[in-house]
Amino acid sequence: MADREQVSTREFVERLAGAAEPSPRLFWLPPALLKVLFGISGRKEAYDSLFGSLKLDLSKLASTGWQQPISLDEGLKRALRRTDI
Fold this sequence. Notes:
The protein is mostly helical. The protein has one domain. Helix content is 53%, strand content 0%. It has 5 helices and no strands. Helix 2 runs antiparallel to helix 3 (44-51). The chain is flat and about 45 Å long.
């Protein structure tokens, strides 16, 4: 399922960390360094998955009139608490 709010992978991870209790510690690494490390390890596809665009075409969803019952942030909190969404 999807909602109309499009977020980058980075923003998704940040919001997921914000929903977690206690909040995990995130640290920043330059994307260029990660690209080199993934390349050396033979995992270029993993780098592409993390840093590539994950935006979806939501035009068909929008045309149905469907509205998400809860926000992304609330959904993440509920998922992390392991409650029914």
